[in-house]
Design goal:
Blueprint: H1 9-15, H2 19-74, E1 86-91, E2 100-101, E3 109-116, E4 129-135
Length: 140
């Protein structure tokens, strides 16, 4: 004679005792993956923001160098009236020797190099003016 097994709520749960452990482990794994993705997103946004700030500071430092050079050339300041090409530098006082010290430069700016071309090298007989900013971008 064949024995018939009856399915009751108690016997079903007795056969599924380990399911809670697997469910808790699955929830923990999914939570860890989501937390890792969220942390990675936060860190990459932080690096992007820091890099954008450094580049913006360099851009405005270049504008400072350009305005300074135009001001010096338009007022025929001594040392700026040479007919040949020359370079001038602007830096922070703690960054070594340069032509003009500017204590208000951000810490990320190492120096600003102003290259003034010889007379007649620019558009319609003017002078070429090239500004180069040396800045550092440090990831934190």
């Amino acid at each position: 004679m064949l024995a018939k097994e009856r399915l009751t709520a108690g016997s079903y749960l007795n056969n599924r005792k380990g399911m809670a452990l697997y469910l808790v482990l699955a929830v923990l794994v999914v939570t860890a993956i989501v937390a890792g993705m969220f942390l990675n997103l936060i860190l990459s946004n932080s690096r992007l923001t820091h890099h954008t700030v450094s580049r913006s500071q360099a851009y405005f430092a270049a504008k400072l160098g350009m305005n300074y050079a135009i001001e010096m050339l338009s007022h025929n300041e001594p040392g700026w009236t040479d007919a040949t090409a020359f370079d001038r530098t602007i830096c922070r006082p703690d960054r070594g020797p340069c032509d003009k010290e500017e204590p208000d430069l951000p810490a990320a700016i190492n120096n600003i190099t102003i290259h003034v071309g010889a007379l007649g090298t620019g558009l319609l007989g003017t002078r070429d003016l090239n500004i180069t900013v040396d800045y550092r971008y440090e990831q934190s």
